Amino acid sequence: MRSTFRPISNVHASVRLQLQKENMAQCLKDCWIPCKLSWDDLQALCRRQRLVCKQLHVSKNNFNEYVVEYLCNYRKIKKAKQRQKLRRWEDQLNQKCKHKGRMFVLNEVDLDIPPKDFTYITDYKLGEGVKVSQTAVGCKCADCVKEPTNGCCAGASEHRMAYNDSRQVKIRPGLPIYECNSFCSCGPECGNRVVQRGIQYDLCIFKTANGRGWGVRTLQMIKKNAFVMEYLGEIITSEEAERRGETYDKQGATYLFDLDYVDDVYTVDAARYGNISHFVNHSCDPNLQVYNVFIDNLDERLPRIAFFAIRAIKSGEELTFDYKMTIDPVVAESKRMDTNFSLAEIQGTPTQRMRMECKCGVEKCRKFLF
Description:
By secondary structure, the chain is of the alpha/beta class. It has two domains: about 35-50 and about 60-95; about 100-345, Beta-clip-like (Beta Complex). It has five helices and 15 strands. Strands 3-8-10-9 form a four-stranded mixed β-sheet. The radius of gyration is 35 Å and the shape is elongated.
């Protein structure tokens, strides 16, 4: 019997097509082409189209996993917008302030942006019913610190000169400071002009990581007894302070500072109007001390509130003062000068007031602010 070989061209068309496919598949068995999409992109594409793909580990149970990636990108976008807002706020603060020290803003904790209901000011804002009378006298000293004439401005008020040659306060807390004013013959570099020169150190408003809100740290070393900043805000009457204080008490926060050097007539409210001191936190072991200062206004009911360093403060250290700071009446010139936040002075029984937990973290913490 003779066998006959038939070439592929003589095979039926359908059979010939099948043989061609088998031959091509055999040739391409070990070939591959790189995909332009990444593994993650292919997964996301399948999930968007709701396609099941075992090779990509995409099933009906994880169709919506791409939402996590979206939230991550959303957080990155929010963080970028936050940085822009903080930078703009930082620029606005430095444009308003003409003093030597610069201000910086940093938030590495959350997505909080600058407070919307707060206006930065560089001097007291007078509230309704508050009037300030300017002094009309000044000194004639050649050198107010080394050769004060008749005690310079402090001597005219029968008080000691407050500063040494290095502009560090040398009198005890509780005694008033009288600086040279606009009617004095001395220039802006006079050694008896300290508080009025403004902040001399670079400071940073930063978000705390332990739930204390914003805080302030110094970016430069501050010497002991050096002036750091003023406490500025809106000056209101004590009656208005009582009304606002009840509202602040319910909110668990207050920015009321009694001006009670001689009479409890006025209060500084830094809640809506203030400077960088608005963001300074409390500590039961503070590094800042309060002094009453008089410059152009000699009305003892309206002193300026100045913070001086109790000790040397390192660069990077947070600035704090005691919200319940009390001056020993034996040391203080006025027995009424206790310079404490007025939340404790709000009328009502202790059970009616909100006890605010202290988070300063120092060894001798009193556990509660009020």
